Amino acid sequence: MISENRANHLAHLMREELRKQNAVSGNDDTQLLQKIKKGVNSFIKVHEEVDRLARAQISNQKKNIGEGSMEWEVLYGRFYEQELQRKGL
Description:
The protein is mostly helical and 89 residues long. It has helices at residues 4-20, 29-59, 70-86. Helix content is 73%, strand content 0%. The two termini are 19 Å apart.
């Protein structure tokens, strides 16, 4: 998970970009920032879970596959994508 300060920073950057593109209306910045932070945190939580599941699948292989090796990278990418698909992402 990222820190509260980073989530705030990302939320402010996203809010400013949305305002520049006239993608949002209204003046309730607090509510908008809260919704953006909630979305950012949800996104990160899902991807952390997908990462954990992909790593677990690699460690459950019959042979020991060293992290950082070409084989590990290929398997990680494959398993990561499979988990994203399972989650409908």
